[in-house]
Amino acid sequence: MTAAELIESGKLEMYLCGALPAEEIAEVEEAIETYPEVKKETERIEESLIELAEKVAPTLSAMVWSYILNSINKVKTLGDSESKSTNWGAITGWAAAILCIGGIMWMLNQNNNLNKSVELTNIENSELKENLNEAETSLAANEEVLEILRSREYQTFTLPGNQAVAPDAFAKVYLNNNDGIAYIDVKGLPEAPRGKVYQVWSLVMEPLTPSSMGLVEAQNEVASGIYKFTDFPKAEAFGITLEPEGGSETPTLTQLYILGQVKTL
């Protein structure tokens, strides 16, 4: 087979797509080494296939399909350039090229889907790791607080709700009166309405003297629902009132939710 016949046969396209049997692959490779025009045509077809694959990935547009079909329709037989006979060898080569491109498209699409799946998995793993770290941090904080509250330096008191305002409410106080430290569990209180906040007061009974210990807010929370207060005068009782955001200088007695005495050893 001459160089011109090989070029017109469509075998170069089939060779580039891996669609030739082994004996014909050897024949084409020998021709590529022997004939410069065959090598040049092989390189041209390879460039065309790469360019076409880039155009159609991940889907074939109507314009590209038209280009391929027009290219097939324009293939003529070897020899008479005006002959209208169909060159089935060249068409077969182009058909193989199209199948090859289809395979490339499928692999690109699969690779794209795989990349998206890997990216989604990485995001999910990152979120799980973050949640695990938060859970471990929270657990460590809870265990530390429990160790403190179980120590002999702290006494535990349950404070009742004000019957006139919140009869079902209650709070627990873990108190170290000597050091002026209190941990208060407010899970027995209803959720504060929007624009309101609970404020904790230490009380001296004679004469009745309230001192603000602070607000039930995030910066004082040391475990779920447990808030730490420090640097307050030695308390004989505790009260919790509902105040406007930011707290008040004196307790709003009409919004007194919790009130209870503590008798320390």
TrEMBL record:
This protein's UniProt keywords: Coiled coil
InterPro entries listed in its UniProt record: Anti-sigma-K/W_factor, RskA_C
The keyword Coiled coil is assigned to this record: yes
Anti-sigma K factor RskA C-terminal domain span: 95-252
Parts forming coiled coils: 111-152
Superkingdom of origin: Bacteria
Pfam families, A to Z: RskA_C (PF10099)
PANTHER family: ANTI-SIGMA-K FACTOR RSKA
Identification of the protein by name: Anti-sigma factor
Protein species of origin: Aequorivita echinoideorum
Classification lineage: Bacteria, Pseudomonadati, Bacteroidota, Flavobacteriia, Flavobacteriales
